[in-house]
Amino acid sequence: MKNLLLTFTCNLKSYIGNFLLYFNNYILSYIPLHTLRKCFYINFLGLEIGEGSSIFMGAWFDSRKNFRIGKNSIINQKCRLDNRGRLTIGDNVSISAEVCILTADHDLQSPLFTGRCRAVTIEDYVFVGTRAIVLPGVTLGKGCAVAAGAVVTKDVEPFTIVGGVPAKHISNRNENLNYECHYPRSFF
Predict the structure, then answer these.
(1) CA distance 171 to 23
(2) What is the pTM of this model?
(3) Are 145 and 163 in contact (CB under 8 A)?
(4) What is the pLDDT of residues 60-71, one digit of tens each?
């Protein structure tokens, strides 16, 4: 009886967690009230969101927890934020619309197609262009920029501009960055 109760409790917690993700990804993320969504992210999904940071409508999370965004950072609309491995975003980061950040994949060489998680870290003052893809295990160094549509397969050095598939060095960025990505709007 004790094992049955334990199994039931574990399954119930799993169902509730899955329902919260479903509710967020299909319903709540399309409600145009940022304050309401932010409250849900923090209190029900366990996400860490810094002061002045915004997550626009349509953001998709793959997990509860394992997500931290610093101060004055922006995630624009319709981004996929795979936080199964761990997704850490710094201060004053601008992530454009429809960006896909992955922290989990499968080992293509594994006979069992084994799943694996590898954290993604995005340091302060990073810019990620529209529809870019960041793959598992990547660190985007301070002040770097990723061009629209780029596929980032390996770490990007600080203050470097990369683009293409796979992303390659294009240029360097000004190292004297001192801006805030703070867009205080109610409906987004």
Answers:
(1) 42
(2) 0.91
(3) no
(4) 999 988 999 999
